[in-house]
Every structure is written in C-alpha cells, then in structure tokens.
Amino acid sequence: MASVTETRNTRVPSSDTGEEWRTLGFYHEPDTAAHVWRFTGSITGLRTLVRMLKAQADKADADGAAGTMVVGPYADFKIRIWERPGIDDESVYGRAADLRRLSRLLETKLSGVSPGQEFAVGKEYTADIEYRLVFAVREETFDPASVVPAVVEPEELVDVENRAAVVHAPVLAFKFHDPDAFVSESEGMIRVEDEDVIIEHQTKDAFLGAFRSDVKVSTLPVAEISWIKFKRRMFSAEITIQARAMKSVENMPTSKQGRLRLRFARDLRDEAEHLADVLQTLIGGLP
Length: 287
Hints:
The protein is elongated and about 60 Å long. The protein contains four helices and 17 strands. Helix 2 (about 45-65) runs antiparallel to helix 3. The chain has helices spanning about 15-25, 45-65, 95-110, 270-285; strands at about 1-5, 25-30, 35-40, 70, 75-80, 85, 90-95, 115-120, 130-140, 155, 170-175, 185-195, 195-205, 215-220, 225-230, 235-245, 260-265. It is about 20% helix and about 35% strand. It has an eight-stranded antiparallel β-sheet with strand order 10-15-16-17-11-12-13-14, with helices on one face. A five-stranded mixed β-sheet has the order 1-8-9-3-2. It is α+β, with helices and mostly antiparallel strands. About 30% of the residues are buried. It folds into two domains: about 1-145, Gyrase A, domain 2, CATH 3.30.1360; about 155-285, Roll (PH-domain like), CATH 2.30.29.
C-alpha cells in the first residue's frame, strides 16, 4: 500500500452539504487529467460504498431490471446496472454479479489497509476501464466534509434592485434536494410565466429510475416568495426558494418549513444562476 500525501486545501462547506458527506461516510471527486475517481474516508466510511454496490446488485436481481444509483450530494458518480463491467467518467457499471464481485474486492482491500494508506482498483475489476478507483484511507475520526475544496461552496445572495423585463427566463430541469434520495427522488422542470413560478414534478424510484407518480404541476406566485438564494458548486448548482407561507409549497416534494431546494446539473449552472437573477428581479419589483 502507498502512503497518502494530503495536498488538498481543506475547509468545511456549508452545513447542509457537509452533513450529506458525513452521512455518506466518504468524499469522492474525479481527477479527469489522471482518469481517476478518488474516494477519501475512514475504513468504516468507505465500506458504505461496498454496501451500496451490494444493494444495487440485490435490487437488480430482485426486480430483473437495469437501474442507476446516485452516489453523493453532487450526483456526479453513479452505480449502474449494465450488460458488461466497466468504469468511466460518470460511473462504475456492470451486471449484478459484477457489482457484487467488485464489492468483495473492495472489502478484501479494506480489510488489509491501515489509515494513512491508499489503494487502487482498476483492471482487477475489468480490463475495459476508462477510469480507476483510488481510495485514500483515513482515521475513524475523519470528517468527509473537511476535504471538500473551498471552490465548491462559494455562496452569494442574488441582489437585484430594479425590475427588468423577463423575456428570456430559461426552462430548466432539476432535482429536488432530498436527504432520503437513496430510496426515492423527485425531479421536474421549472419555468417563469408572468409573475408565477411553474414547477412540474414527478417522483421516481432512486434505484431503478421507474416513475412512481404522475406528473404534477404546482404554481407558486412570485408575490408569495420571501427570498431566493443561489449556490454554485463544482459539479452542480442549487436554488433555494423560501416561501412566505408553508401552505404555498405544501404540495411540492421535500418542502420543509416553506422552503424548496432545487438542484441543477453541472452543465446548467449558468442557466440556473440566470433563473435566480430573474426571480430576484421579480421579487425586487413587487410593491
């Protein structure tokens, strides 16, 4: 096993994202230059990935269907059921038997490693890989949130004083922030029409991607919005909408105390920021 050299700029991110990494038990990120997925955590924390691989394999065996499991709050790494094994820039994939074999391989390596060491998994899993999995092992007291790069969490409150014409407001796909998304997740489309925010949404099984509900349409008048907050992360963006009353958003998934948190994919970060600008412009123009 190789020794670990820590070179990351450390900083605890915002409390919500930090708690998600702590619940997961490890932190992960891609190194596109080296074609590597890096996982950092204690032995106990990294064993969460072992359990997730097994759970995805068991789900596929039970339901006889392909599916995808999203790993981590940035939703940039996935475990997929596929007809052959492999590792790419988005996921580790394979048949149920392949994922189960990978889980055993990881468990064997974790059983023989000590904090301060690292190990890699690549062609032991399959020759058909684009990326390797590299695991940096830390002490049991390790906090995954402590190694999130500082650039992940620049936070700003969009501040626009004057109302402007809203003619190019983007229509964007998103996912509701949900700490229980290991079991199910809700996603939708958001758009602005005049002075209303229109949100279409649907809930699906997080394992198989099979939709479990009909598409529902909710309307939130801009006049009922208290404030808007935008966050840009390395691999995603988030808009938080705080309603003036809980009743205004009670029929939307994952709403809590009148608050909605919508997550947008990496390639939609600029459009999401523009949408936040549009919403804040409307709020600023209300009497």
